[in-house]
Design goal:
Layout lengths: L8 E10 L2 E10 L1 H49 L17 H50 L4 H33 L7 E4 H11 L1 H6 L3 E7 L3 E4 L1 H17 L6 E9 L2 E8 L21 H4 L8 H11 L3 E7 L3 E9 L5
Parallel strand pairs: 4-6
Antiparallel strand pairs: 1-2, 3-5, 6-7, 7-9, 8-9
Helix pairs in contact: 2-3, 3-8, 4-6, 6-8
Length: 344
Amino acid sequence: MRGTDAVSWRMVSIQTSGPEGSLIVQIARSLAAYEHESAELLLTFLLTAPLTLLVATFGGYFLAGRMLKPLQTLTLAANEITAERLSQRVPVNNPDDELGALAQTLNRMIERLERSFVEMQRFTADAAHELRTPLAVMRSEAEIALRAPRAGDDYARVLENMLEETNRLSNMADQLLFLSRQDAGLLADGRTEVRFDELLAKVVSDMQLVAQEKKVLLTLEQNEPSRILGDVGQLRRVLYNLLDNAIKYTASAGKVSVSSLTQNEFVNIVVRDTGIGIPAEQLPRIFDRFYRVDPARSGDASGAGLGLAICLAIVRGCGGTISVESSPGAGTCVSVRLPLVSAN
């Protein structure tokens, strides 16, 4: 209730029995103190709320800026890394927090990109060099033949040399096309069940003539029956490449042995020779495209350095592995491991 002095009162009425009958007891308390405090609280809220909101807005903006600054720095550093600046890395201020983990992940990705770019540039340069060499030979042969009239035998020799270089270019183009299709996943899946022991025996028999011309003893020591899932043409290509390399880099009166054994649902093919061997520092790169061991050591420079890269691609496509062990003067051992049909 509100009194005449505009002050609010809180009143409680109780009816009870007294000596002379019913009584009504009323108790009242002034609410002036409460109203005064409420008015002060409302005034305080109206005065401080805008200020608090303003402080909270600027404080939140400041804190967000400080928190996002490392991310902005990371973004700016990442935007500065282009194809020409792949050697740069984004800064890692604290490797233990989330932004540090993100920066490390970006750096690992950039490192992989850098390796891919370097390999691509090297591949392009090597391909250009390998293609230019036979073209230069053909051009030189043609220019020499056209300088002056020559006998028919001389022209025949020039044409033979040009045909040889043309075959080399054609073979290299086929190898590059195979590798590019393999990388792009465009090779048709021609895998069928193959009697690998029969294929190996056929390839060794075909390579006997090459070995005899080089006066190298080629033997098939063990050839256990085996069936694998693969493309016959590609598997034959692997075997021809491995045997051709073994015979090529083995001196006259040397030996090349081949064995094929099955073990734990795999067939293990080993090609071992008594050739010149490969230095330990060059072994990690022998499967790189266009990489060749120093031709001066073998007196042969006819290859393009794509044979083992093709072997690696084919073997991996079959779900297998290939490895090489070698030392100078002690020969080379190439091991190929392919899953049997029962393991697929």
